[in-house]
Write a structure and sequence with these properties.
The complex is a heterodimer of chains A (431) and B (192). With 431 residues, chain A is mainly beta. Chain A is 10% helix and 62% strand. Chain A is built from 3 helices and 21 strands. Chain A has a 15-stranded mixed β-barrel. A 4-stranded mixed sheet of chain A has the order 2-1-4-3. The longest helix of chain A is centred in the first third of the chain and has 22 residues. The relative contact order of chain A is 0.11. Chain B has a domain of 132 residues. Chain B is built from 6 helices and 9 strands. In chain B, the strands form 2 sheets. A 6-stranded antiparallel sheet of chain B has the order 6-5-4-3-8-9. Classes of the chains: A mainly beta (431), B alpha+beta (192). At the A-B interface, helix 1, helix 3 and strand 3 of A face loops of B.
Chain lengths: 431, 192
């Protein structure tokens, strides 16, 4: 009788224990991570970028975040997670099955916004330069993975931000990325770049160093040192005299980001938050056409040395919601502030100016995939609709007649993503 | 001749096409609770089955909308196959009921559990126009505490405390991983 009661109690305790275990979110001890269908991408790079480690225990939330992180990598189209039995009870093999992109890649983003000019009554084309910048950019290149944790790349890349005192340009780049730096899941990219567009001519090769340090599964701090030499350009002034121009910029920034989105270029769900303080130094030799009293005079070019030290920050917040297999909506806002201490030395006469510039963008979007859920595993084809309000205050600037801009924009774009890259073609209208 | 062949083929194909569109069956329980039994064909869908045997949780989110009143309710099912114990660990969240967990030993028993009617919404109406959305998600939705809090604070769906059933059922459509598949059914039901 006693034996029966004890057996019943033990059985009850075991059942309660099992039930309690079921109630706790499961955790899995990952003995090994097995990357499958990776032909070009090194499995070590995929494991490093997942921020998971063999020999550690993870919850499903950890694995879900890791899957989302891999989905954001530009060299993977998709990554599926599953478990297999490990070498002993309670141990698991995490299987990551990937679909890779091609080694050659492109990102072409062309969405000119036709803006109505209130003063002149005609329609102008704003290629995103300054208002809602980032709509127009082009990347064309190739990437090869070398060794266990490295990749070399070359191509043409565009830099385009919303800040007032930094340069936007396109450059030819060759570089190397080391993943899982010192076993820390950090990465470092060293680029050598030569500006091609938006240069004063005769640009020089200059270095760029980018170091990304993960601080949590979804947070990364990215440090950038960017030295740009737009070179010395000889030109003939209005009197036919040969002159020289020189333009350089050095930019140091630290970007904190929190990213749970599902895609690097056309996210449909998740959150992206970022904050980027920066400091920049810019030197420019130029000619000003004004007399000693500062009155505009085209006939009197005077040599001027311009130096500006600017600092500021950008903040950005975007949230994406999947409505269905094909539809998603988004809301977002970004803004920035910068201050520049500018020094102009015109033929020995020094003038100093402080300028503040700000910008703000608020947007809402809707996107609809033309492809079925099954087809989206290997790319996507989408229509995007965006409504956006943008405003900018440049501060007092001798180069622009309008110091303030304030515009409402509606834009439409077709986006096509394939294993080669992402193409976004669209058009907008602003008023 | 060609036309007749086409008609005949269409007649043969029609049942196959109808079979490819699995539909739930509906019932009315005491107190006007509308319940739905999900089609077993969903469990045998190749993508779903691949996910079910992955060793990770598969979440089935069911959102029921009364198209007349726009009232939304829902339910959630979670299924995970324990690779070592070789049992199915399942969890069911329904209207006005506490979460129910079970360990299921076989696929046959899992299908039996699957066929248990899901309590979706309660109504006094004699007829109801119902839209049922089923979203199949990889990973567990139960761990998305951050999403639940965010949605609750934003006033989007419901509150985190009492009445959190709808929130529980609907989170995951916004923040979790990409859906494996989804279904939508519209039906007119005469309840009395």
């Amino acid at each position: 009788m006693i034996r029966t009661i004890l057996t019943a109690l033990i059985a009850l305790a075991l059942a309660a224990s099992a039930a309690a275990q079921d109630a706790v979110p499961p955790r899995f001890f990952i003995e090994r991570i097995d990357v499958r269908d990776a032909d070009r991408v090194s499995p070590e790079v995929i494991i490093a970028e997942s921020r998971l480690r063999q020999g550690e225990e993870y919850s499903e939330a950890d694995l879900r975040d890791a899957a989302a992180r891999l989905g954001r990598l530009p060299f993977l189209l998709s990554a599926d997670f599953s478990l297999e039995k490990g070498s002993d009870r309670g141990l698991y093999v995490l299987v990551i099955t990937v679909v890779e992109t091609k080694p050659f890649f492109y990102l072409l983003d062309l969405r000119p916004v036709f803006s109505e000019d209130d003063d002149n009554g005609f329609i102008d084309i704003d290629y995103g330069d300054r208002l809602g910048a980032g709509d127009n950019q082009g990347v064309l290149g190739a990437r090869w993975f070398v060794g266990r944790r490295g990749a070399v790349h070359f191509g043409m890349f565009a830099r385009d931000d919303n800040q007032e005192f930094t340069e936007d340009y396109t450059s030819a780049v060759v570089g190397y990325t080391q993943y899982d730096l010192f076993g820390t899941r950090a990465f470092a990219t060293l680029n050598l770049k030569r500006p091609l567009l938006n240069v004063t001519g005769g640009a020089e090769v200059s270095p760029q160093l980018v170091v990304g340090v993960p601080v949590s599964p979804n947070q990364t701090v990215t440090f950038t040192f960017d030295d740009s030499d737009f070179g010395v350009d000889e030109f003939l002034d209005v009197d036919g005299v040969e002159k020289e121009l020189r333009n350089t910029e050095r930019l140091v920034s630290a970007r904190w980001s929190y990213n749970t989105t599902n895609h690097p270029f056309l996210p449909t769900r998740g959150t992206l938050l970022s904050a980027t303080p920066f400091v920049a130094w810019r030197d420019l030799s130029r000619y000003v056409y004004e007399d000693e009293d500062g009155v505009f005079d085209l006939t009197v070019p005077r040599r001027a040395a311009y130096h500006a030290r600017s600092y500021g920050f950008d903040v950005k917040a975007d949230r994406y919601f999947d409505l269905s297999d094909r539809n998603s909506v988004s809301i977002g806002a970004e803004g920035g502030w910068a201050r520049a201490d500018e020094r102009n030395r015109i033929e020995g006469k020094l003038s100093e100016v402080q300028r503040n510039a700000t910008y703000a963008i608020a947007r809402a979007g809707f996107s609809h995939s033309l492809w079925t859920r099954e087809d989206q595993k290997r790319g996507d084809s989408r229509f995007e609709y965006v409504a956006r309000w943008v405003t900018r205050d440049r501060g007092t600037d001798p180069f622009f007649f309008r110091d303030e801009d304030d515009e409402f924009q509606l834009a439409w774009a077709w986006v096509r993503r394939s294993s080669f890259g992402t193409l976004r073609l669209g058009v907008g209208y602003g008023w | 001749m060609v036309a007749r062949t086409f008609v005949l083929l269409s007649l043969f194909a029609l049942p196959l096409l109808m079979q490819a569109q699995p539909k739930p069956t509906y019932s009315v329980q005491p107190d006007g609770v509308v319940a739905a039994t999900l089609p077993a064909a969903i469990l045998t869908d190749s993508d779903v089955q691949k996910r079910l045997t992955s060793g990770l949780t598969t979440t089935f989110l069911i959102a029921a909308r009364d198209r007349t009143t726009n009232a939304v309710s829902g339910a959630r099912l979670e299924v995970r196959y324990d690779l070592w114990d070789e049992v199915w660990l399942v969890r069911r969240l329904e209207l006005d009921r506490k979460p129910e967990r079970q360990r299921i030993a076989s696929m046959a028993d899992l299908e039996k559990w699957w066929r248990t009617p899901l309590r979706l919404l309660s109504t006094d109406a004699s007829r109801i126009s119902l839209q049922l959305d089923l979203t199949v998600l990889p990973f567990s939705a139960a761990e998305s505490e951050d999403a639940r809090q965010w949605i609750s604070k934003s006033g989007g769906v419901g509150t985190a405390g009492g009445g959190g059933g709808v929130v529980d059922a609907l989170i995951g459509t916004t923040i979790n991983a990409k859906p494996i598949t989804s279904y939508r059914w519209n039906v007119e039901l005469a309840l009395k």
